[in-house]
Design a protein that fits this description.
With about 525 residues, the chain is of the alpha/beta class. The chain is built from 16 helices and 26 strands. The strands form six sheets. It has a seven-stranded mixed β-sheet with strand order 8-9-10-11-12-18-19. It has a five-stranded mixed β-sheet with strand order 1-2-5-6-7. A five-stranded parallel β-sheet has the order 14-15-13-16-17, with helices on both faces. It binds zinc ion (2 copies).
Length: about 525
């Protein structure tokens, strides 16, 4: 959920440029929520001074919130040709998505956006056209690295432009805002070229069908798989819309030139097992993606059989281990052979490890380092590394902190802006506190009870009362239905209240609520949400 805001100028005449506008994905702690979006209250407040949104690259955690948040800002958006084409292709799939005016920027391009003098510098990552951003200001230069690694052979597109970084270093960089994802990891991330070799070896050894699951946007990986397939006289079949979309966009931009055509799902059925490699969506265990459907035998056209190989050419994002594990178990049960990055060189990270980070710091020599893009442990490892390579000042900030970088060499937090998340829940975007998701989580843990009682003026029950249970066990340990247990305490509770006080609806409701929760807790060990309505006749 990356979103950075750069400001320039005195407080009463400050202009802002947003760099990236990403989403995050909800885990089981937010039941029913599709996406997590950044809370942009502060940006909305300064909207008239926001000159644009600059996207560093086309990963969801960097540009996925545009559709939902742009309508509140309505400012020009800038991104690379690949990002713009992929964004446009995704828009076609989303009914009602806003048309966002987008200016396409090439890697290496320098231009002004309002008072911001920016230059995009090509880096390597795990998709086409990732960029770092250099800001030139009268007080000095600031480098925002975006997501990067050093890969001299990225497979598709330009490698990281170390020459340009060297020139910029000679110009001088005051502050560097840099990716922390792999800061705890020693060494260097392997090259995409190593993965291409590893992939070719695994595919070369397979005797039956091969399927490879990847992050859809990783065009270089798609290329590596296609080359390995061609070398082994196999056709590539695409299973899953997200990969189809990326292949179409990348083909249009010439990134897949020189490869045999990709085939659609129908071809999977009639190609001989040793003549096919399938590219499949769902490397993170997404239940609606092709891999999950095939693993659980729910796919309408495609099935695996014993002896087939499935290559997980991806990293499992923390939080998805269970879903991915379930798929791998289902596949193994069917006799499918699984290959992950633990077994062979079939994946590499798109982020720099320590030696790469040290190399860039030694080249750029910033006076200030600001670690970003990581959890606390990553930021701390990054800070320690930056100090060890001689960066004079390292600042770890919290989300929402407004850091005054320039002029001078004493970066200071001057303000804390409101930050947090919004959840996209069905068709609504809301703060979590008012989204109902907190209650929903409670209900998923201990269920809910709704009770309606009708009383007359004298405080006597009129007729039967209604009890509805949602998500409670049917019976307790002695086989007594919970419905009866609850009905018993409702009557008892009303009788125990002195007649005079039974005229107070709220008092009666609260007394019933307490005794119901307490008796359920006695029999079950959990307290459900309980709602009581008292009606008078
Ligand atoms: Zn990225
Ligand atoms: Zn990222």
């Amino acid at each position: 959920m990356n979103l950075a805001l750069y400001g320039i100028g005195p407080e009463d005449a400050r202009k802002w440029l947003m760099v990236d506008c990403g989403v995050s994905f909800a885990g089981p702690d937010l039941p029913g929520v599709d996406l997590i979006l950044p809370d942009i209250r502060f940006v909305e407040k300064v909207r008239k001074d926001l000159v644009g949104i600059l996207i560093t690259h086309a990963h969801e955690d960097h540009y996925g919130a545009l559709y939902d948040l742009w309508p509140r800002l309505e400012v020009p958006v800038f991104m690379s040709p690949f990002a713009a084409a992929l964004h446009a292709a995704k828009r076609e799939m989303e009914p009602g998505a806003p048309k966002i005016p987008t200016t396409v920027l090439q890697q290496g391009e320098r231009r002004s956006i309002g008072p911001f003098d920016i230059e995009l510098i090509a880096v390597s990552h795990s998709l086409p056209e990732p960029n770092a951003v250099l800001f030139r200001t009268p007080f000095g230069n600031v480098l925002h690295t975006g997501d990067w690694k050093i890969d001299p052979e990225p497979g598709v597109g330009k490698p990281i432009d170390m020459t340009r970084f060297g020139e910029i270093a000679r110009e001088g960089v005051e502050a560097m805002i840099c990716d922390s994802t792999n800061a705890p990891r020693e060494g260097r991330s392997p090259s995409e070229a190593d993965v291409a070799k590893g992939m070719a070896e695994v595919i070369g050894k397979a005797t039956k069908r091969v399927a490879v699951t990847i992050f859809a946007s990783n065009v270089a990986r798609i290329r590596s798989v296609a080359q390995a397939a061609a070398a082994n006289d196999r056709d590539v079949v695409i299973l899953g819309r997200a990969i189809r979309r990326v292949v179409d966009v990348a083909t249009e931009l010439g990134m897949l030139d020189g490869l045999p055509p990709f085939r659609d799902e129908e071809a999977y059925g009639y190609l001989p097992p040793d003549k096919v490699v399938a590219l499949i969506t769902g490397s993170q265990g997404e239940p609606r993606a092709a891999l999950s459907k095939i693993a659980f035998d729910e796919h309408r056209n495609v099935a695996f059989s014993a002896g087939d190989t499935v290559i997980f050419s991806s990293r499992t994002i923390p939080g998805n281990e269970k879903a991915v594990g379930a798929i791998q178990n289902a596949l193994v049960t069917q006799g499918v052979k699984i290959v992950t990055d633990k077994d062979a060189m079939v994946h590499t990270s798109g982020h720099p490890r320590r030696d790469e980070m040290a190399e860039l710091y030694r080249l750029i020599k910033p006076k200030v380092a600001v670690p970003v893009h990581g959890e606390a442990v990553h930021l701390a490892a990054h800070a320690e590394l930056a100090r060890s390579v001689g960066v004079p000042k390292v600042v770890i900030t919290k989300n929402g902190a407004m850091l005054r970088l320039l002029p001078g060499d004493e970066p200071t937090v001057i303000e804390h802006t409101p930050v947090g998340i919004q959840v996209k829940d069905g068709s609504l975007i809301r703060a979590p506190e008012v989204s109902g998701v907190v209650e929903r989580r409670k209900i998923s843990f201990a269920g809910a009870v709704a009770i309606s009682v009708v009383m007359d003026d004298r405080g006597d029950l009129v007729g039967d009362f209604a009890v509805s249970l949602f998500g409670l066990p049917h019976v307790d340990e002695r086989d007594t239905p919970f419905r009866d247990v609850i009905a018993g305490v409702v009557e008892g509770t009303i009788e125990s209240i002195p007649r005079q006080r039974r005229r107070d609806d709220e008092m009666v409701a609260e007394a019933i609520r307490r005794s119901v929760r307490s008796v359920v807790n006695e029999r079950w060990g959990k307290k459900p949400i309980c709602d009581v309505t008292v009606l008078r006749v």
